[in-house]
Amino acid sequence: MSGDMTHEEHGSVAVEEHGHGVVEGNPFADPGLPEHLPRLTDIDEKAAKRAERIVAGLFLLSALATIAFMICYTEVPNNTSSIVNFFPLGAMSASNFALGVTLGVALFSMGAGAIYWARTLMTDVEVPQERHELESTPQDKAEGISEFQQGVEDSAWKQRPLIRRTLIGAMAVLPLPALWILRDLGPLPGTAQRQTAWTAGELIINDNSISLDGTQGSGLKPEDIEVGALVSASPAAVLTAGDNTNDMMSMSAILLVRMNTADIKSQQEIDWGYQGIVAFSKICTHVGCPVQLYEQQTHSMLCPCHQSTFDLSDDGKVIFGPAARSLPQLPITVNADGYLVAKSGFDQPVGPSFWERG
Known about the structure:
five-stranded antiparallel sheet, four-stranded antiparallel sheet, 9 helices, 15 strands, disordered N terminus
């Protein structure tokens, strides 16, 4: 006979038989699952107890780090004076560093505890499962429920109360940072949103003259502002506000506009201005965006965020857009040195409207 082998003959030779059945046309035998070797925690209760304590310790560390996160959020300052150089991470505020470390430890400890629990104490018996259709049959669903219940038994959830209690405790504490942060949404602001730095005699500072360190700035005289000009200004108190500068400017920022007196429609606006110079809050009464788009011919001030438009020649009234209140006007005059100053504070709250505001 010839030494050649037909395709049919080769196929018959490639038929192999092993412990997992016959594989036709496959020259490689299915090796099957490796022999199961028990873990130390499966055969030594002392090792299991030690693993249990490690898992519980990680869950406890997660809970403590979560509490530390809330304490750092409240107690560690977050301002320019708290900038620290954390080598090799670079310069950052102590607050950001503390929050990042504590939250990272909390999440890592929770995950590491769960993984170590699964690797040392939960069952590690290999269970092969054949692929099936995406939609399970009622029988498969029942088997799934049964396997879940078996998994609960295999996890030693009932037999390891220390792990169970510490895990429940860590998971109960974990959502607290969200509540801790959200507490800044309350309590109700009360009079906090009504107070600005403007008082009688407060010098008006040109924002363009404020130094980079925020400690120097120059006042404004009537002759510095031409008809049709728009000037951003702040109270002189911002020069000594330190870390509170941004908060103070966010509430007390104003716009100065000079118009011909004949163009001003409201007598009160004339009385609260000086030689056609009027001052209005820079904060839109809709959601608090800064307004600074001025149309000289119509005396209209436009908010760039949602197009609320205010008539600065008529008490800052709303003529278009979603804003519900006029821009608050600041009464101004000049002091003995000829500089523009405030006569008093605003007569109404500045900033966005909200339902608690009277």
